[in-house]
Amino acid sequence: MTRTLITGGLVITAAEEIHADVLIEDGRIAALASPGTQEWAADRVIDASQKYVIPGGVDAHTHMELPFGGTFASDSFETGTRAAAWGGTTTIVDFAVQTQGHALRAGLDAWYAKADGKCAIDYGFHMILSDVNDASLKEMDLLVEEGISSFKLFTAYPGVFYSDDGQILRAMQKASVNGGLIMMHAENGLAIDVLVQQALARGETDPRHHGEVRKALLEAEATHRVIKLAQVAGAPVYVVHVSAREALAELTRARDEGLPVFGETCPQYLFLSTDNLAEPDFEGAKYVCSTPLRPKEHQEALWRGLRTNDLQVVSTDHCPFCFVGQKELGRGDFSKIPNGLPGVENRMDLLHQAVVDGRITRRRWIEIACAAPARMFGLYGKKGTIAPGSDADVVIYDPAAEQVMSAETHHMNVDYSAYEGKRVTGQVETVLSRGELVIDQRKFTGRAGHGSYVPRGITQYVG
Asked: Rounded CA gap, 196 and 187, in Å?
């Protein structure tokens, strides 16, 4: 294994910013030292002068090859992890899906097979629980031991992923014993389905109505409900893709009471809005995701939640569908538009733009994009930081480079960009995954199969 020395850069972690040289050996961080104080021999020297040296991003919410609405997310594990690397993300945690009527193991094995030998960066799995019963509850214990330590349930999508309150409570009770973390998609799906049918009956078929029927109050109601169920079960709960200020208020209230309640938001809720959903000529279909985009005034509340730590993590919920042939399935009926946005390549840059704009600090950028997701899902120490012994997942980031986001230049396997034409300051220059160059001076040098499956411990946020 080669020794790599990174010199001259500003090392930024969630805890500190220091000018330091970084020595990498056998795929791990071997040492840090003040510039020029150590005479380290190395096979490869990377000059990071005027650049940031940051931990590789951890995207704890992706959906590669997810089946949805009669089609599949357009990124495979190969294309999706390559795009992630281009965007400075070196670990993803994707979702294995239990099919109703089948064992958790069958779903997990199917996802192992999809990813094995395909990934350019490291990966782990959460488990979607769509059939809570005695057998699947028993299986949860085995999965936690195997390093699948988080389980996602839905109060949405009746007939597909939906679990009722009793099922959610039972899963939370199980997690309170085995250390698993329950992740919740919190929207009142039964009520939403009524509103969808009423809207379609009125002839309201355009993409913008997707946002109007999935009301913020129904996100808030479900968020409140899953918090109370977790409280009854004595379990922590993590609410995914928080989009509405009313839902955030429920999280904030619970956290103020000292409850182990956590939340994530996504770049689309911070940078996009219902204005995008209302774009003419069916262009709004590009922005259909659930939870939906909200009116612009919700953005300020979410940014504040990130600053006050009422939201701990920014993940992408990367679930791309091409506009041509996939999003178009919903022409004339917004409820048939596949739900999901591309974004795994854009997250680190968009959040750096928030640093440039003064919304968050540099260390908070690393906290919400690297350290907190690693800690939340049992990876911290190995991932999410630059420290002796941690994996050498390192990004050389040019904070002064300017770029324009576009489908013409991105590497995700999707025919549009959710951020088309957006100018941002900051760009990934070089990426190492476990000490191996994956992106070298803006050239892809990685390979499918370099990425390893990473078993996870239990959440490091709960004592």
From this structure: 14
Q: What is the pTM of this model?
A: 0.98
Distance separating alpha carbons of residues 399 and 412, to the nearest angstrom? 23
Token look-up 């919400």 returns 368
Nearest in space to 354 (alpha carbons), one of 369, 340, 334, 344: 369
Q: At what angle do helices 104-115 and 134-146 cross, to 10 degrees?
A: 40
DSSP at 214 = S
Q: Strands, DSSP E only, in 52-203? A: 52-55, 57-62, 67-68, 71-72, 89-97, 122-128, 150-154, 181-185
- Token readout for 463 is 């004592």
What is the per-residue burial (b if ≥16 Cβ within 10 Å, else e) of 55-87? Answer: bbbbbbbbbbbbebbeebbbbbbbbbbbbbbbb
Q: Work out the average pLDDT over 113-131.
A: 98
Is the CB of residue 326 less than 8 Å from the CB of residue 73?
no
Question: If 0-12 CB within 10 Å is exposed, 13-18 middle and 19+ buried, where does residue 251 land?
Answer: buried
Q: How far apart are CA 365 and CA 425, in angstroms?
A: 14
Q: What is the pLDDT of residues 5-53, one digit of tens each?
A: 999 999 999 999 999 999 999 999 999 999 989 999 999 999 999 999 9
Contact 40, 20 (CB under 8 A): no
> What single string gives the DSSP state of each residue in 278-321?
T-TTTGGGGG--SSPP--THHHHHHHHHHHHTSS-EE---B---
Contacts of 337 (CB under 8 A, 6+ apart): 69, 207, 210, 285, 288, 327, 329, 330
Identity at 311, one-letter amino acid code: L
List the strands of the sheet with 181-185, edge to edge: 57-62, 89-97, 122-128, 150-154, 181-185, 237-239, 261-265, 313-314
